[in-house]
Design a protein that fits this description.
The chain has 2 helices and no strands. With about 60 residues, the chain is mainly α.
Amino acid sequence: MAAKDTKIQFPLWQYLNQPLFSRDYQLELNPRRFAHSWRVGLLKRCWYKECDAKGHQQS
């Protein structure tokens, strides 16, 4: 079985839903720069997400 193409597409919905007047979030109007920072954030979220590959362990 061949592996499917898992390329992440441009996060259009996240780009369009950026907060406009927020002190906590900086608006990014450059789509390429936004996509890069969004992918870096996605990688960080995936990296820190707890994964239980072994299943339920009894103590």
